[in-house]
């Protein structure tokens, strides 16, 4: 079979680098495109000598000229600290990145997958969240640059599909964690692990009873690839996440136990528009993709803690 040439925007990021690695293992040509705003060369350094891997430093705000069979659009800062650093650029990255990858897919007759997010559900009034739920998003809050940017990207994907016949796939990614998260990522799993390993106080927002459902990165990547290779009739959106729900207090206590840390818990005010509950309904992924997470939280945290221990040794 002919090798597929696959473009991954945001390919040097946490999730993107794992996706590059997996697609290379499957025998594809992979073009990793990243402006390195939050992506890191260290994430893909081990791939650089692979003759079927190519790194392109480029910003999706500019036109993309690549010949390809498939496109995974992951380009966008995904943690509140990073996407709130330059909220205008964050919004532009979601919207212009979608336009440029869709335009490329239209020209190349390529299939394109949008990495959307559970943030499109906002602070949900429906729990757990099925794909049919339209969300409860504040359009003018400090998280809106990301939430509304991703919602608009989904709109563009379906408009290009209806108006131009572009072959699209849309997945909504729920809280994902694993090796290659940044030390300064700012999301709860990396925050808790780094604070615990350093023996620092662990920061709990609010009372810590808000919940999340954490999906290990290997499970997510498998779901994304299955979605990309699924039947033409399945456009999505499809939720990809782990439905096992846990409170932030429970997560903090688990991390302290697994790291044998002396860290104490401290409470700070809940950030604006921070969701109180987050849990995916994954029945569509189970039925249409024959996919569901297989890595337990304890297994995934073990690998993630090991990764951060090594990183901290060199910092």
| Strands, total number | 13
Proportion of strand residues = 15-25%
- Distance from N terminus to C terminus (CA atoms, Å) equals 45 Å
- Roughly how many Å is the radius of gyration? 19 Å
- The portion of residues assigned to helices is 25-40%
Mass-distribution shape: globular
Described by strand count, sense and barrel closure, the largest sheet is: 7 strands, parallel
The spatial strand order of the largest sheet comes to 3-2-1-4-5-6-11
Structural class, from helix and strand content? alpha/beta
Report mean pLDDT, rounded to a whole number.
Answer: 96
The run of helices and strands is EHEEEHHEHEEHEEEHEEHEHH
SS field, number of helical segments: 9
Low-pLDDT stretches are none
Write a concise synopsis of the structure shown.
The protein contains 9 helices and 13 strands. By secondary structure, the protein is an alpha/beta fold.
Structure overview:
With 315 residues, the chain is of the alpha/beta class. The chain has nine helices and 13 strands. α3 packs parallel to α4 and α7 packs across α9 (297-313).
């Amino acid at each position: 079979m002919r090798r597929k040439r696959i473009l991954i925007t945001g390919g040097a990021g946490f999730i993107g680098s794992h996706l590059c690695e997996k697609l290379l293992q499957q025998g594809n040509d992979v073009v990793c495109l990243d402006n390195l705003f939050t992506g890191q060369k260290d994430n893909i350094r081990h791939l650089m000598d692979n003759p079927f891997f190519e790194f392109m430093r480029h910003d999706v705000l500019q036109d993309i000229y690549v010949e390809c069979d498939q496109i995974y659009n992951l380009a966008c800062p995904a943690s509140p600290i990073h996407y709130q650093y330059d909220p205008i650029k964050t919004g532009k990255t979601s919207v212009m990145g979608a336009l440029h990858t869709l335009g490329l897919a239209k020209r190349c007759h390529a299939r394109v997958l949008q990495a959307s997010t559970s943030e499109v559900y906002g602070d949900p009034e429906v729990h757990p969240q099925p794909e049919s739920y339209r969300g409860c998003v504040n359009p003018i809050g400090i998280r809106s640059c990301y939430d509304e940017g991703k919602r608009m990207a989904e709109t563009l994907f379906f408009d290009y599909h209806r108006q131009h016949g572009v072959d699209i796939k849309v997945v909504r990614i729920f809280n994902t964690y694993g090796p290659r998260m940044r030390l300064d990522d700012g999301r709860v799993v990396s925050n808790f692990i780094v604070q615990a390993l350093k023996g620092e106080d662990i920061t709990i927002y609010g009372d810590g009873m808000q919940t999340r459902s954490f999906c290990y990165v290997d499970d997510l990547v498998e779901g994304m690839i299955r979605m990309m290779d699924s039947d033409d009739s399945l456009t999505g959106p499809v939720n990809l996440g782990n439905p096992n729900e846990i409170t932030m207090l429970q997560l903090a206590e688990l991390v302290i136990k697994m790291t044998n840390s002396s860290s104490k818990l401290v409470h700070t005010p809940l950030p604006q528009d921070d969701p109180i509950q987050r849990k995916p309904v994954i029945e569509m992924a189970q039925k249409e993709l024959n996919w569901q997470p297989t890595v337990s939280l304890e297994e995934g945290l073990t690998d993630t803690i090991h990764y951060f221990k090594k990183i901290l040794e060199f910092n």
